[in-house]
Amino acid sequence: MISSLLCVPEKGGPVFCNKRRASSGRSIARGIPIMLTVMVAAGSLILVASDAAPDRIPSFVTWSAENIAAASSGDAFRGSLLAKRCDHCHGAEGFSPVASTPNLAGMNMLSIWKQLEDFRSHKRRSRPMEPIAESLTPRDVADVVSYYAELPVFPDPQDNRVFPGMQPEAGRAAVAARLVTFGDGERGIPPCQSCHGPVAYRVGVPSLMAQNGDYVLNQLEMFASRSRSNDINLPMRTIAALLSEDERHALAEYYGAGLGLQPAGSSGSK
Question: Do 210 and 127 share a structural domain?
Answer without folding.
Answer: no
